[in-house]
Amino acid sequence: MSINGALQSAITGLRISQAGLDVVAQNVASANQPGYTRKVLQQSTQIVDNRVIGLRSQGTVRTVDNLLQSSLRTESAGGKFTNITAQYADRLNQLFGTPGDAASLDAVLNQFTNALQQLATSPENAVSQSQVVDRANVLVQQVRSISDQIQSLRLESEQGINDAVQRANDALQRISQIDQQISAAASASQEPSDLLDARDQAINDLSNIIDIRVQERSDRSISIFTRSGVSLFDRQPVTLSFDPRATITPQQSYNIDPTKRGVGTITLTSVGGLSVDLVAQSAFRSGEIAAYLNLRDRILPEAQAQLDNFAAGLAEATSEKSIAGTATTNAGGTGFGIDVSQLRPGDHLSFSVNVGGAVRNVTVVRVDDASKLPLSNTVTADPNDEVIGIGFSGGNSAAAAALQTALQAKFGTGVSVTNPAGSPNVLEVVSDGSAATTITAASATVTETSLAGGTTALPLFVDGGNANQIFSDSLDNTPQRRGFAQRFAINGALQADPAALVKFSSTTSAGDPARPNAILDAITRNVRTFVPAGTIGSATAPASGTLTNYLQRVISDKGQIAATAKSIDSGQQVVVSGLQNRFDSDARVNTDEELSNLIQLQQTYQASARILTVVRDLTQALLNA
Fold this sequence. Notes:
The protein is α+β, with helices and mostly antiparallel strands. 48% of the residues lie in helices and 20% in strands. It has helices at 3-29, 66-96, 105-121, 126-187, 193-209, 287-319, 396-411, 484-487, 492-496, 514-524, 547-587, 591-624; strands at 39-48, 51-62, 212-216, 222-226, 231-234, 236-237, 239-242, 266-269, 275-277, 320-324, 326-330, 333-339, 348-355, 358-366, 385-390, 415-418, 426-431, 437-447, 461-463, 469-470, 488-490, 528-529, 544-545. The strands form seven sheets. Strands 10-18-13-14-15 form a five-stranded mixed sheet. It has a four-stranded antiparallel sheet with strand order 3-4-5-6. A four-stranded antiparallel sheet has the order 11-12-17-16. Helix 1 runs antiparallel to helix 12 (591-624). The protein is elongated, with a radius of gyration of 38 Å. It starts with a helix and ends with a helix.
């Protein structure tokens, strides 16, 4: 190597060492800055006339693994989803309590049934009667309190969505501003490493809120999409908006029809002004927003529906009574006459129809709200019945005509329904007498409205939010079951006269245990079938059991959901932590490593400086020769 070559190599070595020292100093100074990634100096050899004459700096680059970064963002969104879900599932579980705990809902129910047992042993005891009413009131308050708190959790979720949407918009605006600066730097052939760090930080913030994927262009600008494919940023950001509700009740739910929607939705407005309902598009699959939507619209409403089932079961079990059909003949046919004078909206008639040797069960529900017709077979908990909705507000004759039309649509003209002139409160359902179709059984299930109706049934619990109406599971207007737990109340007439817990007619003796035992059996012994709600029951296999069994299943279900959510979150956080550690090991500044590089650069600098000294001495020697 010539003296000039040695001089050139030494000078470039000094420059590269100085640039490297600058990078190390920047790394160490910024090590604790959020979002900062380690920078390294890129360098290459300079070759002239096939000879290496030194090094060339090619600027600094970030030590970022883009594939690992993408995976980390995806899993971080999942971590936010599981963490929020686990927190709320635990809070929901605490509302219902642990089975057997003194403060749990099943313990309060047991206190009520114990009071009933005591009353059954001493029906004439006024203290025992009052004790049952007191325990019923405690049960009512506990159910209503849980329902209120479920709706409070839904409102918190609504507010969580609102906050997340605002932060998402902020992140998109930051990304847009930085992205323009990056494009400008790239156009000027500048390395925008610090700008890329700032943009990544904003993208990371967005990825915790919404599950996203990022595409980078050749000019270093990016496009951002949700994992479901909705564009959020392409040169310019979209605008997200949310219309939160100040209060939320069980009757308020999401609906793609804006006129029926009772909760907020997220609307995307594109740069061109196009608006899209992202909730209707199922655009959110992970991240904070998806977690809050899942809580508000699925997990918490399912818990409310289960609590409504329990409250409705208590009201129905104590107040419903069955009226048997009376065998009758009409125009040569055979069938049954049923007294419908006590049939309220939500009450129903039941028929068994033998068609060609196969028995088909039909449930006729009174529905006076024509907008709710026709009814789905899923209205009842029985997966094997065929459901018909009939209105009675036009009178029994009109109801008979409507029922005949519905039955003939199912079984042909061999079935007829009449409202005999001599029996205005009776509907007669008969077949034509042929062997092909016969009515084999008929009955009505109606709701007792009086405390002294002559049977052990009584309206012990009523709809306190609707002027203490009798609960009959009406489907008119807003279904009465929806949110019933929040309106659950004890009959005010019973509170005024606790003796009605025993006396069900003018001839009932003070010591008759029939009604207390009937109430006790209805809650603890009689098996019921429950409308599917959440993970308890399905359309093909509904849950069945006593009311006490059902409540235990509800409480256990909440505990299982909380435990599962916690387990899933723990696993997800391990995944996120592992990816974060891998990312940090490459991208974050390690001060020990930087100090080691500093020593190496110092040595390189000193070596280059020594070469310069030698070149100087050699040059001086040549000049003196």
